[in-house]
Amino acid sequence: MEKTSGLHQNMTSIFLLIGHLIVVIPLFSAAEGCIICDYFVLVGEPTAITCPIITLPVLHSDYNLTWYKNGSATPVTTERDARIHQREGLLWFIPAMLEDSGIYECNVRSLNHSNKKTINLTVFKNDNGLCFNGRMKFEQKVTSTNTGKIICPDLEQFKDEDNNQPEVHWYKECKPGFLEDKRLLLAEGENSVLIRNVTVQDRGNYTCHMVYTYMGKQYNVSRTISLEVKEKPLQMQPEFIYPRNNTIEVELGSHVVMECNVSSGINGLIPFWQVNDEDVDIFDKTYREQFYEEGLPHGLALSGTKFNISKVKVKDYAHKFFCHFIYGSQEFTAYIKLERPAQNIQGYLIGGGVSLVFLVFFTLFIYKIFKIDIVLWYRDSCHPFLGKKASDEKIYDAYVLYPKNRESCLYSSDIFALKILPEVLERQCGYNLFILGRDDLPGEAVISVADEKIRQSRRVIIVLVPEPSCYTILEDESEKQLAMHSALIQDGIKVILIELDKIQDYATMPESIRYIKQKHGAIRWKGDFSERSHSASTRFWKKVRYQMPSRKSGSLSELHLLPKDLNLP
Ligand SMILES: *[C@@H]1O[C@H](CO)[C@@H](O)[C@H](O)[C@H]1NC(C)=O
Ligand SMILES: *[C@@H]1O[C@H](CO)[C@@H](O)[C@H](O)[C@H]1NC(C)=O
Ligand SMILES: *[C@@H]1O[C@H](CO)[C@@H](O)[C@H](O)[C@H]1NC(C)=O
Ligand SMILES: *[C@@H]1O[C@H](CO)[C@@H](O)[C@H](O)[C@H]1NC(C)=O
Ligand SMILES: *[C@@H]1O[C@H](CO)[C@@H](O)[C@H](O)[C@H]1NC(C)=O
Ligand SMILES: *[C@@H]1O[C@H](CO)[C@@H](O)[C@H](O)[C@H]1NC(C)=O
Ligand SMILES: *[C@@H]1O[C@H](CO)[C@@H](O)[C@H](O)[C@H]1NC(C)=O
Ligand SMILES: *[C@@H]1O[C@H](CO)[C@@H](O)[C@H](O)[C@H]1NC(C)=O
Ligand SMILES: *[C@@H]1O[C@H](CO)[C@@H](O)[C@H](O)[C@H]1NC(C)=O
Ligand SMILES: *[C@@H]1O[C@H](CO)[C@@H](O)[C@H](O)[C@H]1NC(C)=O
């Protein structure tokens, strides 16, 4: 048995898109475009070649069509049992042999008309180990997810004696059995296979095969189709890009462009604006809609319409603006609502809070720097009111303790305690001091004096010097120290420490002094010990005055009239 098969390579020119199917149109109705038309057949298979001419004589009744081999004057025989013969306008090879490859001519002749066409037949062999030749395939396309159809082309001529089409068998990649997939259906009598729910796995080489019987001999006829699966183009439901049933805040009188954008898989959607159940240009004559359309990636299209509200009016806040479009039989709607901007209370609150916190910190900062000046200024300016409040049983504003000088000591604590201190605090500021060694009467018992006077004082000023070897405070007056200690503890009298120079080592100091230093700190004297006048408004004296009680009575000017005598020893 011999194999024959006729194939037409330039199939792309005879594919027609019907729905989602590529259908091969019978050859005689196409192929006219080619100058030398190419035909292919597998060696050993039969083929019947049609003349690629459609002319009026064909449609009219009377014409003679004659085949010639490559310019030969002798027509191809019409003997039915010749391997190559012409019959009913077709050129038959039963079967085709490799040497049949070459040029053939068909001549159409009617009474007053003649036409000639040349064809080029190629007889090919299968690729090694395959049931087809990779270069001799029909190309067909189906679309994923759709139902697709594979058609076994050009079988019309191969009818048996009873005019029946022989049974067609299918192979995929030269293997049978793929039809067991439930998605695939053999379309009887149509020489085709239906594929439902096409997937990319369906692409491949499909070979259809049938047996043609001619003059008692059987011949194979096969076609191979290369099936491509096209991804279904995104055919999404159109949807609003904007608006999305949202509100926007716009100021009265401001300019707003009202845009409505719809994305879809098709062109030609026409969205439109409505408000208050009428078109926007009826709602307001100045609202002129403008339609636009542009392409988006992935084959999508954007359809839009917009209009300007050049000055937002009060009535614009009263309604929702609806954008509609119609797709299929459905109407789609989305709206946008204009709102007047709310007073931004939160913003104010946050802003106010921040400035308040800042103000507080700033005030604290200023207060920390100028605390002393502020308090002193306050005491001065509010003196009359303070005077009334501050009444207690005390006689002295401060009790002054200082180490008595010895020879060979650098620090003139005597001068400080007996001259400078009274000069400033008493004479200039009007305080009343008790200075041991100035104000005690000779012969009085030191302990009892100290105890009594401390209790009568509002403050205790202790002058410290950094020379423990030279002298220590209250060195030989432990009773006095005790008294002072108890007074401090019991009466809560405030102690003001004044260092006449930096004291490196407090360890040698009594415990109570260390405690006070740690708790309240000390004020260091940086001035000299000359007896010139010292100003009460230096930093040092301001610190001291700050620690002193506010003055009880009298003003500075008054007090200047009552200077205390400085009884220096
Ligand atoms: C025809 O095809 C069948 C199956 O493909 C094969 O077995 C047989 O040998 C072929 N016949 C000829 C004459 O090539
Ligand atoms: C066709 O015939 C011409 C001469 O008649 C020859 O030269 C040429 O090679 C032939 N072509 C084919 C394809 O047989
Ligand atoms: C066709 O050929 C036949 C026989 O050769 C002849 O009688 C007839 O006139 C031809 N017809 C045309 C239209 O040439
Ligand atoms: C052939 O030509 C004659 C006149 O010359 C005309 O009447 C006739 O219609 C033509 N036939 C065809 C088929 O064109
Ligand atoms: C006929 O087709 C074969 C194969 O495609 C090609 O090699 C050859 O050149 C063609 N001949 C003509 C005359 O077009
Ligand atoms: C179809 O056959 C060709 C060889 O002609 C091969 O390269 C290709 O991989 C086959 N296609 C599939 C899907 O197997
Ligand atoms: C094709 O897909 C649809 C929906 O995905 C499904 O309902 C149907 O059963 C599938 N058909 C086949 C033959 O698999
Ligand atoms: C609507 O589409 C146009 C055109 O692509 C674009 O310029 C505009 O920003 C879009 N508007 C909105 C609100 O998405
Ligand atoms: C909207 O106003 C702008 C200028 O603000 C103008 O360019 C545009 O053409 C106007 N569009 C319509 C539809 O009136
Ligand atoms: C927007 O509002 C319209 C009409 O009120 C409604 O039909 C639509 O479903 C809404 N869309 C969304 C996304 O809520």
TrEMBL record:
Ranges where the Ig-like domain occurs: 26-122, 150-226
SMART domains the record matches: IG (SM00409), TIR (SM00255)
Cellular component terms per the entry's GO annotation: membrane
Domain of life: Eukaryota
Chain ranges passing through the membrane: 348-370
Record's keyword annotation contains Hydrolase: yes
Official protein name in the record: Interleukin-1 receptor type 1
Record lineage: Eukaryota, Metazoa, Chordata, Craniata, Vertebrata
